[in-house]
Amino acid sequence: MSYNISVIKRFALLILCLLALSPFLPAQKKKTARDLPPQYRKWLEEEVVYIITNRERDVFLQLDSDRDRNIFTDAFWRQRDPDLNTPENEFKTEHYKRIAYANQWFGRDSPAPGWRTDMGRIYIILGEAHSLDKWENLSEIRPTIVWFYDGMAKYGLPGSFSVVFFKRDEAHPYQLYSPVSDGPQNLLTLYAGDSASYESAYRQILEIEPRLAEVSLSLIAGETRYSLSPSLSSEVLLKQRIPAAAYENVKDDYAEKLLRYKDLIEVDYTANYVDSEALIKTYQDATGTAFVHYLIEPKRLTFDAFQKRYRAEIQINGNVTDRQGQTIYQFERKVPLDMDEEQFSRIRSKTFSFQDLFPLAPGQYKMSVLWKNSIGKEFTSLEADLLIPETDAFSLSSPVLAYKTDENSPFKGRNKAFLLDDLQFVPSARDVFMPGETLHFFFQVHGLPAALRSGGFLEYTILKENAKVLTQTRNLAEYPGRTDFAEALPLTGYPSAHYQLKVAILDPNKTERLATQVPFDIAPVVALNRPWVLSLPLPASGDPSFAHILGKQYFLKNDLAKAKNLLESAYRRDPDTPEYALDFCRALFAAKDYAGVLGTAGPFLKDERRYDFLQIAAESAQALGRYAEAIAYFKDHLARFGTNILILNAIGENYDRLGNTAEALVAWERSLQLNPNQENIKARVAALKTKK
After folding, report:
1. How far, rounded to the nearest angstrom, does the alpha carbon of residue 519 sit from its chain's CA centroid?
2. pLDDT tens digits along 504-554
3. What is the pTM of this model?
4. CA–CA separation, 650 vs 312, rounded Å?
5. Topology of domain 274-535, per CATH?
6. What is the bridge-based pairing of β-strands 290-298 and 276-284?
7. Residue 210 contacts by C-beta under 8 Å, 6 or more apart in sequence?
8. Bridge-partner residues for 317, per DSSP?
């Protein structure tokens, strides 16, 4: 049977068009390499051109300084270092050896340097072939070289395959051969058959060199084929899989993380991004306060070993912003780790899970958490969208899945990550279980309508490939007054696979009202390397610190009424804490309760704690017309914190209102010495001098 070349080529073109949608091919970028300084352009377009991912390239082109580019290149090579415990980066060393070899041996008959030739490109990506065949002196066959590769499945490649190069004539260098684009006809110097027939050319080569005939139609060893037509899988191999092999095992998330956090982390950290997994859930406590529970599981946690002690230090910087980008809450945690040999031996082979929580007012937010190990100089992060419903809204939370629970937590009554309804859940970021384990899960239902509370149902379903494998339905009336639901489902008899757990609320007619589902996996293993957990408890829900945190959040959300109530609650319960008193003063000032500010600040203005209260007390006294008192506070502020233009201007304003022109001029002229471009103050000074 004869196969028409034009038909095959049109089909191959369709394949290539589909491949153009692949993430392996270049994406649009905002800037080009031409915008880079010469050394960085050379690095991008010559040295790493075949091994850099599109995401890495896009990020590199967004960097604006040589400092950031140097940091990026360090991180780039570190992500490819096969052994971070050795001083040499074996991958980087091998890569530059390949470039040097390509330039020495593959550019001799080409006007371009060796790295730019087809042979150079394949050699740089794949390295030296396992074996090589040459046909360079046959009159019937054009000069042809076959490189055979084996055992490269870890790079996403076939188990065994060949790469073929041929010369169209002596004036051109060896070029990459494609069974589809070139066909066996182009390996023959004189092709005597039908120009539209692959089969005829194949049979002609078969009579001369059977090994070459084999690879002329398929580069993949042992490929099952049912005709003598070129292998489309070979085309995919050449156009997609070999280029992608250069970064098959590279997780390039670090590039965007570096771009996002480069101004927030010290230089020592920037090349040490650690891939991680994370989990975030939101639940309300008994008071109705929503807490965000989260965990971060970095792939690596480096300890410093000294005199049989092992040390690390975890630093957490969290930030929550609203939809407009306004910061609503920031938090920090610092946890030093110091272990002896016995303690370290118990965790050294385990992954690490940092778990924490914080209260958050209702709303829609973006959350980011920067995790750092100050000893190992490594960092990772998580980013997520958060939706915190109003306390009384009819809602169903997303279940948290856990592989075990603990009824005897010593932290009962306090707030701790995934300590829910006095039951400590132990989740993992990946939600992976072993056959026969018990799946523990927890969720909450809020604002349940009376009709559903008395006649509705809870339905639990486990799905595999969208097919139900288990359904349990229970009356909601069995849970009177409950909002917290903790359940356990044995996984005995479930084969290893990917599953979904669905939780639904049904009305009396069994119609679904709310539903949520989470994925989980049952792994085909008898043991899993569960992480060791670091989780520090917070105070009980009645602690004033939570009212203070929520009050500040509402203040930043411009909900002054709720902010004032919460900040006052924190202050009344702990009136000796300056931070509570100061933030309550700010809420009172925003509400124009200036007398309330001075009353609250009064006890703190009598001792060393006064300094933080001086400015708000001064502004409140000024608003009440107590100008001499305001001047005293403002001057005390200057004595403590140094010269401040705004404070000088305020002092001048208060002296002017007291009719003390001379002192007003002293303050304002001093302010103008610091900043002469204050037209309003210039006018005030000129007016006072005219009066004199």
Report:
1. 20
2. 999 999 999 999 999 999 999 888 999 999 999 999 999 999 999 999 999
3. 0.82
4. 49
5. Immunoglobulin-like (2.60.40)
6. antiparallel
7. none
8. 332, 370
